[in-house]
Design goal:
homodimer, mainly alpha
Chain lengths: 205, 205
């Protein structure tokens, strides 16, 4: 009874349930567990709605950003979540994710596959204001979580202020109006001892 | 340094992280655990994108539906998820949720609070085609999960075909083009033994 088109769409919908199993490094704000990429994507889409006013509506279509954020992590179903400070794993990330995109978006009817893949590629290539705003939100959210969890993943991995500042840099490009907030949070976290001001120096003794 | 407006927005963004802790009855498709309401909301928003063609675009603005789906469960942070077949808990659901809406949306600057609350109320009152399509997706998704988990929550609670048909009825209104699929899935589930065709009769002996 199902048309093959609808069957493809349902297969995709069932398949993407697996994104709920992909764990990120970020902890939930109550520190009870690690966040998964599906609920993370929801959180970012909500942030796009609430923080839309910090980018000019003439250059950023917020609803386009929401769609981009909803699909931006789908490739992790096959490629996994790559920890942003893991230099080694980031070397082959692009190739792993491109292959994942072909398989996962490829479950859909052709023109829908192309549409969603284009959203993902727009996010990855970071050439549009929409993609840059989406990335700004994708950086801001774990910053908020690390603040709430008193350093959460930073403490586990001995992350320093300089590393976080570098990681947050896309916010300066994609949502400059939010940059003072970012600097303020980072300084508060250093003062509170959640974030190391400088790299730990190994004692020679 | 933060304006109080931005501080309110950030407080809301941090607060809604709690939706990731609200567990629904539905299992993930691999049966590993129950689904939470944040990842569920993400899944529904993805379904709205993929299944938009089954409602006329002249009457349903899909991006409005996406926003509605992203916020539709936020009240559960205070009011909890109410199991749809729990008659008792459903009696005071509306009052509990209205109070939750006041507190949670009330964290935002006034006009944003009003906008998001209006989306939630539109979903609840079910008077627009957008709200009816959103509800159709909210019913279809657990049906797919129950099929994937070989009866999942239905088996635990001895749910019958008649109960599921009644529960799915809004799909007939909100996305009639998807109704044949719903009937097909239900019959497949009955045939496979995932769903009881009739209520269990207690033996008098």
């Amino acid at each position: 009874m199902q048309s093959s088109r609808l069957a493809q769409q349902i297969q995709f919908i069932v398949e993407i349930d697996k994104l709920k199993q992909i764990l990120r490094q970020t902890l939930l704000t109550d520190e009870s567990r690690r966040e998964n990429s599906a609920e993370h994507s929801w959180h970012l889409a909500m942030m796009a709605i609430v923080l839309a006013e910090y980018v000019p509506s003439s250059v950023v279509d917020v609803l386009h950003v929401i769609k981009m954020l909803l699909v931006h992590d789908l490739v992790e179903i096959d490629a996994g979540d790559t920890f942003c400070y893991d230099v080694h794993a980031n070397q082959n990330k692009a190739a792993r994710e491109a292959q994942a995109a072909s398989r996962i978006f490829g479950l859909l009817p052709e023109e829908q596959a192309a549409e969603l893949r284009a959203l993902w590629e727009e996010f990855e290539t970071q050439e549009t204001a929409a993609a840059q705003f989406a990335t700004a939100l994708d950086r801001l959210q774990p910053l908020l979580h690390n603040q709430q969890t008193r350093g959460g993943t930073w403490r586990i991995h001995d992350i320093t202020r300089a590393q976080v500042l570098q990681r947050m840099h896309p916010i300066k490009e994609g949502a400059p109006a939010l940059w003072p907030l970012v600097e303020q949070i980072i300084e508060e976290c250093v003062l509170a001892g959640y974030l190391q001001p400088e790299p730990k120096v190994e004692s020679p003794f």
